[in-house]
Amino acid sequence: MTVNTAASETRYTTLADQLPSFISSTLLQCKRLPSLPAAALRVLNVARTADATCSDYAKAIEHDPALTARVMSVANSVHYLRTAQPSHTCFDATQRLGLDVTLATVLSFCLFEDDHDAHSRARFWQRAITAAAAASYLAKQLCPHQSGSIFTTALLQDIGILALQKAYPADADLLYADDRSSHQHIIQVEKRYFGCDHTLVGAWLMAKWGAHDELINAIYHSHGSLETDDMAAVCLRMSGPIADAWLSANPSQALADVLRQWRTLPTFNNWAVDGLLAHLQQTLPPLSNALGLSAPCGVDSLALLQNAQQLLFEHTLSLSARLDAQYKARETLLNDYAKLEQRSRIDPLTKLANRAWLEEQLRERFHLCLTTKRTMSVVFIDLDHFKVLNDQYGHQAGDRVLTHFGKTLTSLIRSGDVAGRYGGEEFLVILPDEDADSAKCFAERITRRLQERPMARVDQKPVYVSVSIGVACLNDGGFGNEQELIDAADQSMYFTKRSGRGGVSVYGH
Questions:
Q1: The CATH number of the domain where 406 resides is what?
Q2: Would you say residue 437 lies in a domain?
Q3: Is 223 helix (H, G, I), strand (E, B) or coil?
Q4: How far apart are CA 363 and CA 25, in angstroms?
Q5: Percent of the chain residues past pLDDT 90, beyond the cut
Q6: Structural contact between residues 432 and 424, judged by C-beta atoms closer than 8 angstroms
Q7: I need a labelling partner for 255 at 20 to 30 A (CA). Which of 192, 357, 428, 487 fits?
Q8: pLDDT of 432-491, one tens digit each?
Q9: Is residue 252 part of a domain?
Q10: Number of structural domains the chain divides into
C-alpha cells in the first residue's frame, strides 16, 4: 500500500529502519498480515475528528458495500433491534449502534473476521475493546475533546501483536500463550526474542497502511510512562493495565495491584474508579456481541472495587517490600539471561561481535540483499606486523592494542553497521547499503585514524599500528553466498599486504 504524503512516507521509512532486518523482511513477505481497505482508513480519519457525527461515519462506510452490509447486520441483530423496524440505511445503523460500536465493528470486520476462533486472538480482541472502552471513559474525564480519537488508538494500540502472530504463528503462540503475563513482561520477552516490541511493529503497520501520524505516534508510545502532562497519553497508557485487570482470572487482586501503582500519580484523584468500572460493566456486553465475541465472565463492578480496595488496604509495608523483592529478583534473572545471551555474541577482549555472530549477521543480510535487490559491502582488516608487536612488547601490550582498536572501530561505524573480531588480529565490518566507493572511504578513515592516534603506550612511548584492508561489494561479483564475499575481501586484503601493507584494496577495482 502506498502511503499518502511525503511526511507519512518518511515516517514509514524511519520506523522500517528501526525494525531488525529479519523482522522487516518477514513482515514484508508475509501474505497473512492484516490489512485495511480504503473505506476503513476513511473511517479512521473520521474518528480522528473531535466533532464527528453519525452521518460522517455513514458516508465513510458507504464507500464499501461489504462493510456497509456488516454494519447493517450488526445493527439489525437481536441485540440491537429493539423495535419492529430494522435499519434500512447506513446512517440509521450507525445511529443505532453509536460511534464507538460502529468503529469497533468496522475494524473487527476488516482485521479480525477470521481470527475469533483462535483463543489467543479472541483474547487479544477482548483486551482491545476493554482497553478502548476504558480509555474513552478516562478521556471524557481528563481530555473530553480527544475521547473519540483515544477510543480508536486504544483499540489499535496492540495491533503489532496480531502482526507478529501472523508472521510467526508458532513462536507467537508460545510467547502469548500465558494469559497471566503482564504487558510489560510481554514487551521484555518480545525484545529478547524479536529485537523489538509490538508497539514498533504496530506503528510500522499503521504507517504502511497510510494512517495519520498522530495515530502512528500514539501507538508507538502507547506503553510509555504515566508521568507525563499529555492527558491523552495518560488515558491510553492506563487503559491496557485496566483491561488486563478486568480480564484477569483474579480481577480483584489485579485491580488492587494496578491501583497500588497508580495512587501516587497526580491524575489519580481526577477520575472515579467506580465510575470507570461501572462503565465497563455496561459497555462491554454490547461491544462483545457486536463483534461476535464471547463476553468475559460477568463482573460486578461494585463488588470488584470493594474487594480491590480491601486488598489494597491489607497490603502492609512488609508485603510491598516482598513484592518489590520479587520484582527485583525477576528483573535480575531477566538481566542475567540478557547478559548471557549478549556474551554469547560478543568478543570479550574487543567488545565487538564475535565470529559466530558476524557470520550469522552476514548470512541474514546477504540473503536479504538478494531478495530485496539491495547491496552491501564488507571490509576485511588485518593488523600489520602484529606478531612482531607481541614479540617486542609482550602479549599484554598486544591485547591493549586489540582492545583500543575495537573501540576505534566502534567509534567509526554507523547505526546498522556490524563490526566484529573475525579471529586473532583480523576484523570484519558489514556495511549495509554501501557500494565499493563508500566502503573504501570508510576504510581510509580507519587508516587515517590509526596514523593520528596510538593504539597503546609502552613505557610512556606511543605504539602506532597500521592495517591492511580489503573491500568487497556485493555488486562487484557473482557471489553465490556470504562466504564467497568474505573470501573476496580477504583476497583484496592480502593484495594490500603484498603491495607494502598499510593501505586499502577493493575487489574487482
A1: 3.30.70.270
A2: yes
A3: coil
A4: 14
A5: 31
A6: no
A7: 192
A8: 999 999 999 999 999 999 999 999 998 889 999 999 999 999 998 789 999 999 999 999
A9: no
A10: 2
Q: Are strands 418-423 and 376-383 parallel, antiparallel or unpaired?
A: unpaired
65-88 tens-digit pLDDT: 877 887 787 777 755 555 557 777
Give the structural domain span for 104.
32-111
Helix (H, G, I), strand (E, B) or coil at 199: helix
Burial class of 426 by CB neighbour count within 10 A (0 to 12, 13 to 18, 19+): middle
Find where cell 504507517 sits.
207
Q: Name the grid cell of 318.
A: 512488609
Q: How far apart are CA 185 and CA 202, in angstroms?
A: 18
Residue-wise pLDDT tens digits, 384-430:
999 999 999 999 999 999 999 999 999 999 988 999 999 999 999 99
- In sequence order, what DSSP letters do the residues of 268-315 get, joined into one string? GGGS-HHHHHHHHHHHHHHHHHHTTPPPPPP--HHHHHHHHHHHHHH-
In a domain, residue 290? The reply is no
Residue 136 maps to a domain: no
Final residue belonging to a domain, choices 111, 134, 156: 111
What 3-state class would DSSP assign to 201? helix
